[in-house]
Amino acid sequence: MRVLGIDFGTSNTVAMVRGADGRARPLLFDGSPLLPSAVYLNPDGKLLVGRDAERSARLDPARFEPNPKRRVDDGVVLLGEQELPVPRVIAAVLGRLATEAARHLGGPVEEVRVTHPARWGERRRAVLVESVRAAGLPTPRLVVEPVAAASYYTAVLGSAMPVGRALAIYDLGGGTFDATVVRRTPTGFEVLAEAGLSDLGGLDFDQALVEHLGRGYSETRTMLWNSLVAPADPGQRRQRALLYDDVRGAKEMLSRTTSADVHLPALDISAHITRDEFDGLIRPYMLQTVHCLAQTITAARLAPLDLVGIFLVGGSSRIPLAAHLLHTELGVAPTTLEQPETVVAEGALFFGGPAAAAGPVHSGVPRPVAPPPRAPAPPARPPVMAPPMAPVGRPPAAPVSRPPMAPAARPPVAPPRPPVIARPPAPPVSATPVSPRPPQQHVQPPRPAPVAPPRPPAMAPRSRGRAWYEEPALVWTVALGAMVLIAVVVLIVLAS
Q: Is position 389 within any domain?
């Protein structure tokens, strides 16, 4: 089946195709996988897209829309003197993808998967579906962008993500930033929390660099600099476009090297920029993204160390400062790629396919089938609990029903206590009301010979005079005998 995956971005659009061989390949536009999402309306009514639109915008900026995705809620877009429906403007970009995909695959696309931000509601998704149909493509299957990124993380990278574990997606593009936490489920992924900064991205970094250059040259060359940043004619607009193109190229170069040069067309000079200077300019913006991601992780009721990782996607996430701040602030080393722009589009191709199939392989959470092995445990406990309960409810019958428990009793202590239980008036009864019961139940039948002979009188139901020390005559007799014995001992000692 010929499948087309589309990541319709704010600044650039990326598309991946998968043919009958199952391999995913990016669509290239002028040798690059990035197609600018820009649209330009020609005077003849034809819509130009991509770099053609950007070049034409130098002649008449009023007919140019650089970021159609940001106009999704507007209903119409004013290009020149015409108002065009938003779905038609977006469809112009998607139509370019459809044409290139059919050429690459050798036939029309049979299935379309389009990604969108997690926070998009039903109305925005409906506009996206209408735009796809207006481009002549089949009704699309919509995929949430962070879910597509998580599918890439597991299916393409082969990273282990057990069921129940969560992954943070740090998506920094050209015009927006999105932070999402997704959790693996037996059937796919679910979004636990999401947040974003709709007005922060690579374009802001470009502008920060332009303003930095202006602070260095605007005072000495004020008029020339103003013609660059605020052009008044087509020639100045072309120079401004060249300036921002060179700034964007320098920004990308600083991700690979420690320095780069920016050519200032009107001033005819080259400004030298180092990575440290650039990092100092964009650091406040980057910290905003890191804090936004930290808040999203907290909203998911997780800590950074609870995650399986932090996955960086989006073209601007390639900037080294992003990974450095995430590692420093959150204590987790993120996963980075050389080409993070294509992650979401390629992940959409694997959504619901290999990613879902890989679930059981990496699953580390007990499934519903796990409880059956634990079932035998409960039956083992009733035999242990039942015997103690029976004697308590029926004290008289306990001695006969439980002879096997005799070995566990304490013979030396048990015999004297049964008489105490039988005589409520005696003092020992209140001191140990419960402990005598177990010995009485187990000892009397099995131990008649060794223990019973010294205590037969105590077991008889006599009311008075059961002990010798309760008879006065016996007490005096024993006392006198003791005194006589002591006297004899003393005399013997003295005689010796």
A: no
